[in-house]
């Protein structure tokens, strides 16, 4: 039987330890091809490169236990997936795995996440797809405690398929293996960032800003990803790219949206 | 009575004709403050500037019929909204309007849209918010036929409020005023882009790519934005930033996600 073909990408760049760990974990499950950004792309959201050129380079990062093929790409995470699917891969991958991100993509962070934009791009193109993030920003984060959960989720997704129009946003708490309580299916917690701009003056006398902020949880449900993570669980949020708020369509149809002098007037 | 305070932004940049038209139309409805990118940001998705500085500049573009205040910002559309709300505006705006985009943001394009990322950012911060796009990419597009529909939708949103957690994605067909049939509440059509990468060789002998593609509609429902636009209607899609696919949670809870040797084992 042919082994599953696994496309691996991320937003922290092709040399990030989180991606190198993910490649090792995926090698146990199938053939692995990496197409990842040549530089960090955090906070890129679902950006794509429309008005600039893209470069791609075949390379080998880990001689031992590395991917079957690896390519860096000068674009965003979404660009990497597009280029992989249309140009670099010889056949359609069975699954696309993005990460492991250094840092959380839970709750509202999904909106800003380059890791998840790569996963969503693959989902739009009809490929089962999962983004993984560890709640540890440091470059020397320990990914090993997450290994079994990651392999379990990917194996189940390969076995069952992921529902159409859905990709998984998986976040993993920063805990030791024996502290992890299990895996929970969750909804995205309501939250936002309370921004603070740190205003400074540059050596030429011109004001500039650094964006900083504090995470503000607005949701105390026990079925959310934030609850799961705080309580020691790996959170799996099924995430969709049909953004329609179907539940308000009926209400909006009661609004007065008649326009004068139009084609029916 | 105090006039509504309207924050206007976009992704084509502060000098774009679509934004200048929007400022004129919003001046009929309230006080207008513009905070918009100093350069085009199309395809930026929901990118934010995490590892770089932001600059902002007070300016006046149109002496007559211009905004009450205008600021350019060196960041992305989402950065503009964050900076406006936290630093530049003296009070919370009553509504945030993004656009008018030169080109469509219907169906799956919402995911890549800088115009909509600005609107969604304001929505996350609890501000009623609408993105407008005209299906005409040209810089000298005629926005006048859209004026009445835009003013009608914004007036109704100011009167009724927009449901919590929802922002409007409004697209306008490229038609004469008397050809516009009216305004329709729609759902986002299922669609994707069939990418083609145009591969070339640079003068130094290195291969590079241009991203190009064809829009592929996968949805033939008559309640979609694509149907409305093709049939002469302005489409209004209520768009949400809770990306949870609530309808699959029950099914996913039947998966075997037990992990060995964990905290409960």
Automatic annotation (TrEMBL), chains A, B:
Record bears the keyword Hydrolase: yes
Catalytic activity reported: a ribonucleoside 5'-phosphate + H2O = a ribonucleoside + phosphate
Sections of the chain in a coiled coil: none
GO cellular component: cytoplasm
Main location, first listed in the record: cytoplasm
Entry's EC annotation: 3.1.3.5
Residue sites binding a divalent metal cation per the record: 11-12, 42, 101
Subcellular location(s) of the protein: Cytoplasm
Domain Survival protein SurE-like phosphatase/nucleotidase span(s) in chain numbering: 6-195
Taxonomy, superkingdom: Bacteria
Keywords per UniProt: Cytoplasm, Hydrolase, Metal-binding, Nucleotide-binding
Cofactor note: Binds 1 divalent metal cation per subunit.
MF terms in GO: 5'-nucleotidase activity; metal ion binding; nucleotide binding
Function comment: Nucleotidase that shows phosphatase activity on nucleoside 5'-monophosphates.
Protein name, as recorded: 5'-nucleotidase SurE
């Amino acid at each position: 039987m042919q082994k599953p073909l696994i496309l691996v990408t991320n937003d922290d760049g092709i040399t990030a330890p989180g991606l190198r760990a993910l490649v090792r974990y995926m090698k146990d499950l199938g053939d692995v091809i990496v197409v990842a950004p040549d530089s960090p792309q955090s906070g890129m959201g679902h950006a794509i490169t429309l008005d600039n050129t893209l470069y791609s380079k075949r390379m080998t990062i880990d001689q031992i236990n590395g991917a079957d093929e690896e390519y860096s790409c000068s674009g965003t995470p979404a660009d990497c997936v597009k280029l992989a699917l249309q140009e670099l891969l010889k056949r359609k991958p069975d699954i696309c795995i993005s990460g492991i991100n250094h840092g959380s993509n839970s709750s509202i962070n999904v909106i800003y996440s380059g890791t998840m934009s790569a996963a969503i791009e693959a989902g739009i193109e009809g490929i089962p797809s999962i983004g993984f993030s560890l709640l540890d920003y440091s470059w020397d984060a320990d990914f090993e405690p997450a290994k079994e959960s990651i392999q379990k989720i990917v194996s189940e997704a390969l076995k069952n398929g992921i529902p159409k129009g859905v990709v998984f946003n998986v976040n993993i708490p920063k805990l030791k293996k024996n502290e992890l309580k299990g895996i929970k299916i969750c909804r995205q917690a309501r939250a936002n960032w309370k921004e603070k701009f740190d205003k400074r003056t540059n050596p030429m006398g011109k004001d500039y800003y650094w964006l900083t902020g504090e995470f503000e949880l607005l949701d105390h449900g026990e079925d959310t990803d934030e609850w799961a993570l705080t309580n020691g669980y790996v959170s799996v949020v099924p995430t969709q790219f049909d953004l329609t708020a179907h539940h308000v369509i009926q209400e909006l149809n009661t609004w007065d949206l008649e326009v004068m002098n139009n084609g029916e007037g």
